[in-house]
Inverse folding.
């Protein structure tokens, strides 16, 4: 039974992908269709025996998905890798620090989620670690990413790394993003093979998915929260998932 | 010459006064979202209400804050991604309103020399399509996303 259920959910995600409003075209893609196909194959492939806990916003994967091994930088010296995911729940968000609207909104919601869990008096809830991955290592230094996220919550973890490493982790979870280049407010078109024209290498914004990914204490992708996000809902869904994990 | 000078000044004064009165754009709840000290970009939000019989648009914003530049943007969901799209103007229809809010229309303050902190005031000058200007003060505060359906989830701390 879980299989058709999940495919329906996946289809509803895909419903958002209509190419309706796209005033500027986009030139650098991190294989989106490819990801969807891979996700469909991986997720549709196997079923689970236990019924999933009831959640409001979280889509629980019928079978937790292994994340490919990774090593990213946390601050100037520390690293953050797949071993850091073991033994605790993790919430992941992919963004970049030059993002003025979506990332601050998401980080604020995630900080609010943690604070609500901290303030919970009736039943203690295990606090997840929150990891913000900058998909823009070209302009985000690891220490800047950490400083940026610490503003929202002192326990937030900000990481980035080699573009290929970041891309690999994002692909493994199903996060999507692309660089869109602009010159004087107009879309800049060039052959991605040749790269951006000289002097305009940093004239881009990054379009990205606003999904929050939940990784379980085995280090596997367990559920996804698609936007918009509410801290109360994330907190409650997380609690339900944690309880069923037992 | 002198008479002419006063006439011109008088006319200018009259124009200035009338433009403020005729602007008819009501700005409410202007705010700049509190951001990390190293934030490369900030966002300003507000509600614009047009009480005139003609369509208006916000075409430019200037700020007292030392920034590299100011741009008008709109966040849209397309292709499964959130995209920021620069706008030439923000339209406010006659007797209509436009809400600048997280996840939607916003004024982007790019490259601030220093990031203002909670409680600070940021002076903004709104330039409208009819040539009028309006000076406003936006408070810096923390903020959250507006939910679909207009349910405001702004947080005050």
């Amino acid at each position: 039974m879980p299989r058709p259920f999940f495919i329906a959910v996946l289809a509803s995600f895909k419903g958002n992908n209509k190419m309706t409003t796209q005033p500027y075209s986009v030139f650098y893609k991190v294989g989106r269709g490819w990801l969807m196909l891979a996700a469909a194959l991986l997720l549709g492939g196997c079923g689970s025996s236990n019924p999933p806990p009831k959640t409001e916003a979280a889509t629980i994967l019928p079978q937790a998905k292994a994340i490919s091994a990774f090593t990213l930088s946390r601050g100037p010296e520390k690293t953050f890798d797949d071993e850091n995911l073991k033994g605790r729940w993790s919430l992941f968000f992919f963004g970049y620090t030059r993002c003025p609207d979506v990332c601050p909104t998401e980080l604020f919601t995630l900080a609010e989620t943690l604070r609500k869990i901290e303030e919970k008096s009736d039943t203690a809830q295990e606090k997840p670690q929150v990891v913000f991955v900058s998909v823009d290592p070209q302009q985000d230094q690891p220490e800047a990413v950490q400083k940026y996220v610490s503003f929202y919550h002192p326990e937030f973890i900000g990481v980035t790394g080699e573009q290929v490493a970041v891309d690999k982790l994002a692909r493994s979870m199903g996060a999507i993003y692309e660089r869109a280049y602009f010159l004087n407010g107009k879309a800049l078109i060039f052959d991605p093979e040749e790269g951006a024209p000289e002097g305009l290498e940093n004239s881009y914004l990054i379009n990205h998915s606003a999904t929050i990914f939940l990784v379980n204490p085995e280090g596997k992708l367990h559920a996804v929260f698609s936007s918009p996000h509410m801290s109360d809902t994330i907190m409650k869904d997380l609690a339900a998932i944690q309880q069923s994990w037992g | 010459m002198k008479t002419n000078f006063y006439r011109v000044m008088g006319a200018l004064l009259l124009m200035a006064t009338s433009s403020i009165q005729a602007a008819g754009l009501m700005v409410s709840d202007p705010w700049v979202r509190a951001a990390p000290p190293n934030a490369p970009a900030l966002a300003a939000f507000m509600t614009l209400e047009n009480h005139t019989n003609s369509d208006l648009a916000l075409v430019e914003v200037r700020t007292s804050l030392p920034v590299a530049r100011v741009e008008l943007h709109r966040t849209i969901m397309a292709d499964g991604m959130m995209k920021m799209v620069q706008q030439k103007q923000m339209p406010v229809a006659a007797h209509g309103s436009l809400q600048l809010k997280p996840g939607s229309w916003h004024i982007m303050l790019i490259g601030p020399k220093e990031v203002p902190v909670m409680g600070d005031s940021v002076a903004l000058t709104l330039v409208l399509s009819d040539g009028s200007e309006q000076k406003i003060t936006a408070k810096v505060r923390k903020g959250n996303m507006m939910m679909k359906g207009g349910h405001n989830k702004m947080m005050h701390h």
User: Anything to note?
Assistant: Helices of chain A lie at 2-14, 32-44, 102-119, 142-150, 163-173, 231-245. The radius of gyration of chain A is 18 Å.
